[in-house]
Amino acid sequence: MASRPRTLYEKIWDAHVVERRDDGTCLIYIDRHLVHEVTSPQAFEALRLTGRKVRRPDLTLAVPDHNLPTTARRDATGKRIPIADVESAQQLAALEVNAPEFGIRLIGDADVEQGIVHVVGPEQGFSLPGATIVCGDSHTACHGGLGALAFGIGTSEVEHVLATQTLLLAQAKTMEVRVEGQLGPGVSAKDVVLHIGGVLRASGGSGYVIEYTGSAIRDLSIEGRLTVSNMAIEHGARAGLIAPDDKTFAYVKGRPYAPKSADWDKAVAWWRSLASDPGATYDKVVVIDAADIVPSVTWGTSPEDVVPITATVPAPEDFADPSKQDAARKSLDYMGLTAGQKLTEVEIQNVFIGSCTNSRIEDLRAAAAVLKGRTKAANVKWAIVVPGSGLVKQQAEAEGLDQIFLAAGFEWREPGCSACLGMNPDKVPPGERCASTSNRNFVGRQGPGARTHLVSPATAAASAVAGKLADVRTLA
Ligand SMILES: CC(C)[C@H](C(=O)O)[C@@H](O)C(=O)O
Ligand code: SF4
């Protein structure tokens, strides 16, 4: 019997079903589990209390990232410089005890491989195409850029995966977001996903797993694909993924955890078979013309509040939906913006280049290319670059990018989540504005009262130079 054409998501799902239940849910095998310090302490504690072990410590990798300071962590003798925040220090200490106790590899704060968990997974070849990947973190969809089914889970699910290497799940609906055509100059993967967020809105992906397709997606580098997938959660989707291809295989090959020799060939053959079949149908299809995408920026407090950098701040009345009008009013008030104001006239005081969305080597190259021979404006008080991992940092230094950033007036930091969210000392002061390459512009996200504008690395760099949100295409 000829099998029904299936999508990438359906193929990965089917390959991981351990048991189908009568109620339609499935017990799904989990191939990779990433663990960070914030959402794992109670899960390990629960295992300890019930006398359970971790079922597959070899498929589990622990990396602290959220709470680590991005300034020096050890003194000259290698001793830890104490972390002032009590909860952060406790969470980090718990991970450092739990990982070895349960036989899990910990990439610690002093290891060169340490970084943001969503940067480290792909970089180490721990995240693979076709794999089911979970982490107690909403941006786990990031790994979908490699063609993995990757999604965030809560702490009780973290415990379940640690104990059983499985999860009981309901299958999601499928959505294709197809971006066809060529991206224009100055338009990056971040602009693509910001634009998609504007089209889908923050809840448009709810109940779906999104497959990003089309020539503009295929043409992206792996770093760019990880950026796009990273923000699937910002459209409310369960996960986002992109079909693995030769670019993906070249990226994965030779990485520490990647399959080797005969296993590699077998793996590639399987990965190749995963692309959605011709004739496979999605529950919803959204088509976007790449020519419509320009450097984009958020003006409000939801990632869906996206406009072209050339636009003006919208007015609440511009929205048909009364609840959106109300949200827009609140957003404008929080953001200190006036309807009709040109975005390129909005002054900024802070610039953050980093986060699991945009802290890979290509992101740093894009920002450095803009900053080379330029300096930040005097009104930009704080500008930092936070590489996604120690290896990204090392690579950037080998290319001299750190020198470009330093000469431009940026600080060059240790890897971690940093100012993406105010869980560590890197915060944007109340009432101040930040051009940020992160993924969330929620109220208080970068610190109480902080005003976040989500942008691409090139736009962040151009904005630092201009002292205002800036169009990288017309930077003087
Ligand atoms: C702290 C963590 C649980 C959280 C998440 O789930 O995403 C964080 O990474 C974020 O980006 O808001
Ligand atoms: S960098 Fe930001 S979005 Fe990514 S995991 Fe850390 S806090 Fe979450």
From TrEMBL:
Its cofactor is [4Fe-4S] cluster. Residues 10-467 form the Aconitase/3-isopropylmalate dehydratase large subunit alpha/beta/alpha domain. [4Fe-4S] cluster binds at residues 356, 417, 420. SUPFAM superfamilies: Aconitase iron-sulfur domain. Its EC number is 4.2.1.33. It is an enzyme of class 4 (lyase). One of its GO terms (molecular function) is 3-isopropylmalate dehydratase activity. Pfam families: Aconitase. InterPro entries: 3-IsopropMal_deHydase_lsu, Acnase/IPM_dHydase_lsu_aba_1/3, Acoase/IPM_deHydtase_lsu_aba, Aconitase_4Fe-4S_BS, Aconitase_4Fe-4S_dom, IPM_dehydratase_rel_enz, IPMI_cat. Pathway: Amino-acid biosynthesis; L-leucine biosynthesis; L-leucine from 3-methyl-2-oxobutanoate: step 2/4. Catalyzes the isomerization between 2-isopropylmalate and 3-isopropylmalate, via the formation of 2-isopropylmaleate. Belongs to the aconitase/IPM isomerase family. LeuC type 1 subfamily. This is 3-isopropylmalate dehydratase large subunit. It comes from Novosphingobium aquiterrae. The gene is leuC.
